[in-house]
Amino acid sequence: MYIGEGSRITRLTLDKNYKVTERKVIIPNLPTGGNHITRTVLVGPDNALYVSIGSTCNNCVEDDQMRATIWRYNMDGSGGRLYAKGLRNAVGLAINPWNQQIWATNNGRDMLGDDIPPETVYHIEDNQNYGWPYCHAGDIIDPDLGNANSCNGIVKPLVKMQAHSAPLGLAFYNRGTRQGSGHFPQSYQGLYIAFHGSWNRSVPTGYKVVFVPINDKGEIAGPVQDFATGWLKGNSASGRPAGVAVGSDNALYISDDQSGIIYRVTYTG
Predict the structure, then answer these.
(1) What tens digit of pLDDT does each residue of 13-26 get?
(2) What's the fold here for domain 164-269?
(3) What InterPro entries does UniProt report for this protein, alphabetically (predicted)?
(4) Which of 77, 152, 158, 233 makes a 20 to 30 Å CA pair with 145?
C-alpha cells in the first residue's frame, strides 16, 4: 500500500490478513507549504508511481519547479522525474480501465469571477504542459500572467465543469470488469467525481458527486450530470465530498471529510 503524505510517500507492506509488517518512506522531501498541501499517489498502468504536487498559490510563477506538476517514480521511489506540468492542483488521479490512460481532476484558479475558469479533467501524458499559470482550461489566457501565445500547444481538457466546484477524487465504474451481483446499470457506466465545494463564489456550488458517461472505448459519451446531492442547502453545507472509490462489492464509496463519514451507494433495481 502506498500513502501520499504532505512531504513524502510511504509504502506499507501487508501480510495476508492486511496487517502492516513494514513501513518505509520511499520518496522523502517532497515540497511542503503553500495553498495545496496534499499529495496524491497512483500506481500507474506501467507499474510506476505517479505523484501529484499542487501549487503554492492561487496563480503565480513558482520558484520550485516541483510545484503544480505530476512526477513519475519507479516503484521503489527511485528515478523521479517530471512527467507533466501546468496543473494547479491535480488532486484526483485514476486509470481509465478501458484504455489504460491516466486521468486527473484539476482545480482552476480563483479570483476571476463566479464562472471562470472551469474546473477540468485531463488525460495526463508524458512531457505535456497543461497551462497553469498562463493558460486555463486549454483556451483561457490568464489576465495577469498570460499573453496572446500562452494557450498555444496547451493540452485541452476532456471535461469542463462548473468553476469553483473543487473536484477532488475520481473513480471509473466499468461494468465489464465487475464480478458478482449488484452492478450499476449500463447507463451509470462511467466516471464519478467528488466536488468538494466552493469557498469564494457569490452563490455556493459543488458539494456533490457528479457522473460523466463513458463509452466502451473509454471516451466521454455525454454531459456532466448530478449523481449524489443534498449536502448543500442554500449557503450552508452539511458535508464536503472528497473521495470516491468502487468497491469489490460493486458499490460506490464516497468519503466526506467535513463530517467524517463514508457513504456506500448500491444499486437495487
Answers:
(1) 999 999 999 999 99
(2) Thrombin, subunit H (2.40.10)
(3) 6-blade_b-propeller_TolB-like (IPR011042), Beta-prop_PDH (IPR054539), Quinoprot_gluc/sorb_DH_b-prop (IPR011041)
(4) 158
Instruction: Choose among 200, 198, 177, 264: nearest CA to 228.
Output: 264
Residue 178: phi, psi to the nearest 5?
Answer: -90, 135
Q: pLDDT tens across 47-99, in order?
A: 999 999 999 999 999 999 999 999 999 999 999 999 999 999 999 999 999 99
Mean pLDDT of 134-150: 99
Q: Are 119 and 55 in contact (CB under 8 A)?
A: no
Cell of 62: 513558482
* 58's grid cell: 492561487
Are 267 and 246 in contact by the 8 Å Cβ rule? The answer is no
Q: What letters, b where the CB count within 10 A reaches 16 and e where it falls short, cover 108-143?
A: bbbebeeeebbbbbbbbeeebebbbbbbbbbebebe
Question: Are the CB atoms for 6 and 15 separated by under 8 Å?
Answer: no
Gap between the Cα atoms of 83 and 73, Å rounded: 9
